[in-house]
Design a protein that fits this description.
Layout: H1 2-12, E1 17-19, E2 27-30, E3 37-41, E4 47-52, E5 57-63, E6 69-74, E7 87-92, E8 98-103, E9 109-117, E10 123-131, H2 133-138, E11 147-157, E12 162-169, E13 174-175, E14 195-196, E15 221-227, E16 232-237, E17 242-247, H3 252-255, E18 271-273, E19 291-296, E20 306-310, E21 320-324, E22 351-354, E23 364-367, E24 373-376, E25 382-385, E26 391-395, E27 402-405, H4 410-417, H5 431-438, E28 440-442, E29 449-453, E30 460-467, E31 472-476, E32 482-484, E33 491-499, E34 504-511
Parallel strand pairs: 13-14
Antiparallel strand pairs: 1-26, 2-3, 2-27, 3-4, 5-6, 6-7, 7-8, 9-10, 10-11, 11-12, 15-16, 16-17, 17-18, 19-20, 20-21, 21-22, 23-24, 24-25, 25-26, 28-29, 29-32, 30-31, 30-33, 33-34
Helix pairs in contact: 4-5
Length: 513
């Protein structure tokens, strides 16, 4: 079957796109690296909508429930440069107007590679964090080099800009058995929840002219995802050839430690997979080189698995999409592991798809609810196969990273409801249902001002604010997007949108003083 599909792919590359069956539900979204234009492609390969954005995209563009897009963008004047460097994130409406943006770029830090959407309209981004040679040596590093460490930052909108509301720093979670007089000394094998600062990596490229003579990016975090149910984050490292999971239920201060959060481990690794030699455990290295695009599978036959794009995981170094059934503990937050062993599953992923072609870089894959698999091969083409690996769709967009959205995704339905795209491909759902899903209030908590987005004023009766006792505090005009509670006492309040059809949507907010 794979040979047949490969031959079919080669034939079909003569055309930009091919539709084979009705199994392809919805749209694909992509924005080529260093291009200003984002494209939404329907099942026939036609361009359903474009966003002509003010800045070039560095890596990822995502569809929000409101029909807006969130994208990583290239900031002019970055002092740190390297593969997929960005420096800022932007939310843009369907006309490519910037709703808000946040810049993270200076002499010591810069946002790069991937982003993922967070609750309340925020975004989680990956960033480089410069560490001097002196800092590395004090942390137990065996060489005398500067390096780029990894940061994960959660940013929430605060009007037309953004602010960091949570962060995690890899440098807080190290171990080394090289120098007992330096920080982080201990047994690597006994501390798999920490990263060996002297771990052997598969590369050290990245930012040209930066730390280590251009080889300072010795981790190269390139993919990130968030699981709201677990309140956990997964990310991938190209040069460690490994997947990691950490807790997000901590505060920023707790994320720097080792004992807080739902799992009780602060910001330490809860789970890691793909290269057990990194923590002196036995077992095969399943990610032999680059690994990209960490993501939990939310629905379908492999729901709950973590999926990655394994660039050289198959026979002869072919690219694969691997899905891992993690050994989640009975407490629902930790991951079972026998001391002295690697994390399960051992030596192979739980499920694997052999890709129709190979890709050496920033690829992506999405498991669909119906069992189909969408794959974007870096710089080549995107395709979709059914549960039996039959090719059902292909598009030659040559993008680095693409995404798939089914017809029932709130963002697709919002674009249909707004008249941005036609409903010829997707059946519409009630506008009121889309509105209920889209209403967001931010920042939360706030010291006074809260902003509301996702409102369709044609379907709203009124907006009210009540306290915990149910007392009416304020009634807001339906066309007003700002709620000012600065005159109220600190505490918890409820902002309720009442729809014309009598449906209600309520958001709990915290007022800080």
């Amino acid at each position: 079957m794979k040979i047949f599909n490969l031959l079919l792919c080669c034939t079909l590359m003569l055309f930009s796109t091919v539709g084979f069956a009705q199994d392809f539900d919805g749209f694909a979204l992509y924005n080529n690296t260093n291009s200003n234009t984002a494209y939404l492609i329907d099942k026939n390969g036609d361009i359903a909508h474009t966003w002509n954005c003010p800045s070039a995209c560095n890596y990822t563009v995502l569809l929000m429930d409101s029909g807006n897009i969130m994208r990583g963008a290239v900031n002019n004047g970055n002092q740190i440069n390297g593969p997929a460097v960005g420096g800022k994130v932007q939310e843009l409406d369907p006309n490519a107007n910037v709703v808000w943006e946040f810049t993270y770029s200076n002499a010591d830090h810069v946002a790069h590679h991937d982003i993922t959407l967070m609750p309340q309209g925020g975004v989680l981004l990956t960033a480089w964090d410069t560490k001097s040679a002196a800092e590395m040596i004090q942390a137990g590093y065996a060489d005398n080099d500067e390096k780029y460490s990894t940061q994960l930052l959660e940013v929430q909108q605060n009007g037309t800009g953004g602010e960091i509301v949570w962060e995690w720093n890899l440098f807080d979670h190290l171990v080394q058995d090289y120098d007992a007089s330096k920080d982080n000394y201990g047994s690597v094998a006994d501390n798999p929840q920490l990263l060996d600062i002297n771990v052997e990596t598969s590369g050290g490229g990245g930012p040209g002219g930066g730390p280590g003579g251009g080889g300072g990016d010795w981790i190269h975090t390139n993919g990130v995802d968030y699981n709201a149910e677990l309140d956990q984050i997964a990310f991938t490292s190209r040069y460690l050839s490994e997947l990691f999971v950490i807790d997000h239920s901590t505060t920023t201060a707790e994320a720097a430690g080792h004992t807080a959060g739902n799992a009780g481990k602060g910001g330490d690794f809860l789970y890691r997979w793909g290269n057990p030699s990194n923590y002196d455990a036995p077992g095969a290295q399943v990610f032999p080189a680059a690994v990209h695009d960490a993501r939990w599978i939310p629905a379908g036959p492999r729901a709950g698995y973590i999926q990655v794009f394994n660039n050289e995981g198959g026979s002869g170094g072919s690219s694969t999409v691997d899905a891992i059934e993690t050994p989640l503990s009975a407490d629902g937050y930790n991951y079972d592991k026998t001391p002295g062993s690697a994390y399960a599953p051992f030596n192979a992923p739980t499920w694997r798809h052999e890709c129709l072609d190979n890709a050496d870089g920033q690829s992506s894959a999405i498991s669909m609810p119906n069992g189909n698999l969408y794959v974007n091969l870096s710089g080549e083409y995107m395709y979709e196969v059914d549960s039996n690996d039959n090719l059902i769709w292909q598009y030659g967009g040559e993008t680095r990273k693409g995404f798939r959205y089914t017809c029932d995704h709130p963002g697709i339905q919002a674009l249909i409801a707004q008249g941005v795209i036609s409903d010829a491909t997707c059946p519409p759902v009630a506008v009121e249902d889309v509105v209920l899903d889209d209403v967001r209030v931010f920042p939360n908590p706030s010291t006074g001002l809260f902003y509301i987005t996702g409102l369709n004023t044609d379907h709203i009766e009124d907006i009210i604010v009540t306290d915990v006792a149910g007392k009416l505090i304020a009634q807001i005009p339906v066309n007003q997007k700002e709620v000012d509670l600065s005159s109220q006492a600190a505490g918890m309040y409820f902002i309720t949108v009442r729809m014309m059809n009598k449906q209600l949507v309520t958001r709990k907010v915290s007022l800080m003083k």
